[in-house]
């Protein structure tokens, strides 16, 4: 338990959104960065699916169940070796992260990232 606590990192919605933006940008990330970005997106998917499971979102909402299933499937896929296919995989992971975050924010399971909050 202590080992898990030491490796725990708090939810950083703004870092998540930065990674989603990198994955979905019209300019593909450099080939050298694909593996790192994929790893970060995979970690975001793991975190968000854990939050959804804890909140029992899948049981309460059909759309949540679909998004969580797609997120889990996408997370488990290996990054293709071909750069173009890897970029497509990053985009799929980026969309899965973005849509799941939107749903979890809308249902109150996670707080909206600071960058999405309206200025008063």
Describe the structure.
With 120 residues, this protein is mainly alpha-helical. It contains six helices and no strands. The chain has helices spanning 2-7, 13-24, 34-54, 57-60, 62-76, 83-106. Helix 2 runs antiparallel to helix 6 and helix 3 runs parallel beside helix 6. It is globular. It starts with a helix and ends in a 14-residue tail after the last helix. The mean pLDDT is 88.
Proportion in β-strands? under 5%
Overall shape:
globular
Q: How many strand segments?
A: 0
Helix content: 55-70%
Give the topology string: H per helix, E per strand. HHHHHH
Brief summary:
Helix content is 68%, strand content 0%. It has 120 residues and is an all-alpha fold.
Topology, element by element:
Layout: H1 2-7, H2 13-24, H3 34-54, H4 57-60, H5 62-76, H6 83-106
Helix pairs in contact: 2-3, 2-6, 3-5, 3-6, 5-6
Task: Quickly list its features.
mainly alpha
